[in-house]
């Protein structure tokens, strides 16, 4: 496998493996710059792995305040029960949203891996004289025989 042709920020050669057919790794491939930017912007907004932290913090604060109100007698228990049911619905909605985002991200990753695997099957491999292409592919997706 070939190493990336780019230089790192400190001027040293990048030691990552290049993604065929490009001469660059994922981090330096100019064709993937938009995807890297898009992924980086998502990461800063989701609170880590797609968790909507702001909604959860708000719900927890409201439940804590409601408990205090019930215990002090400022909020009737029936009102608190209904409000708690509504909060439970909000929590379920937050969980469904998190699962949907996670599923979408996993599907994108699977599609990218499948595309890379398809690309790897068509890459020529070194042969004794020149290059060879796969003749047979086994169940693991690896070439078992080559045509020169």
Overview of this structure, please?
This protein has 148 residues and is mainly alpha-helical. The chain folds into two domains: 45 residues, no CATH class; 73 residues, no CATH class. Helices cover 53% and strands 9% of the residues. Strands 1-2-3 form a three-stranded antiparallel beta sheet, with no helix packed on it. Strand 1 and strand 2 form a beta hairpin. Helix 2 runs antiparallel to helix 3. The protein starts with 32 loop residues before the first helix and ends with a strand. The relative contact order is 0.07. The model has no long low-confidence stretch (mean pLDDT 78).
Structural topology:
Layout (H helix, E strand, L loop, with lengths): L32 H13 L7 H20 L4 H45 L3 E2 L4 E7 L5 E5 L1
Antiparallel strand pairs: 1-2, 2-3
Helix pairs in contact: 2-3
As a whole number of angstroms, the C-alpha radius of gyration is 26 Å
Quick one: how many beta strands? Answer: 3
Q: How many angstroms separate the termini?
A: 20 Å
Please, what is the average pLDDT? 78
Number of domains: 2
Bin the helical content.
40-55%
Q: List segments where confidence is low: pLDDT < 50 over at least 5 consecutive residues.
A: none
Helix-and-strand structural type:
mainly alpha
Instruction: Compute the number of helices.
Output: 3
- Biggest sheet character: 3 strands, antiparallel
| H and E string | HHHEEE
Describe the strand arrangement of the main beta sheet, using strand numbers: 1-2-3
What is the 3D shape?
Answer: elongated
Strand content: 5-15%
Provide a concise account of the structure shown.
This protein is mostly helical.
């Amino acid at each position: 496998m070939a190493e990336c042709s780019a230089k790192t920020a400190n001027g040293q050669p990048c030691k990552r493996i290049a993604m065929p057919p490009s001469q660059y790794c994922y981090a330096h491939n100019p064709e993937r710059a938009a995807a890297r930017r898009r992924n980086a912007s998502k990461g800063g907004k989701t609170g880590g792995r797609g968790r909507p932290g702001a909604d959860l913090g708000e719900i927890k604060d409201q439940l804590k305040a409601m408990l205090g109100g019930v215990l002090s007698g400022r909020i009737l228990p029936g009102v608190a029960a209904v409000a708690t049911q509504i909060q439970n619905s909000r929590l379920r909605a937050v969980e469904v949203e998190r699962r949907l985002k996670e599923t979408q991200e996993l599907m994108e990753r699977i599609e990218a891996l499948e595309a890379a695997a398809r690309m790897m099957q068509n890459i020529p491999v070194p042969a004794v004289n020149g290059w060879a292409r796969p003749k047979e592919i086994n169940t693991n997706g690896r070439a078992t025989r080559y045509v020169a």
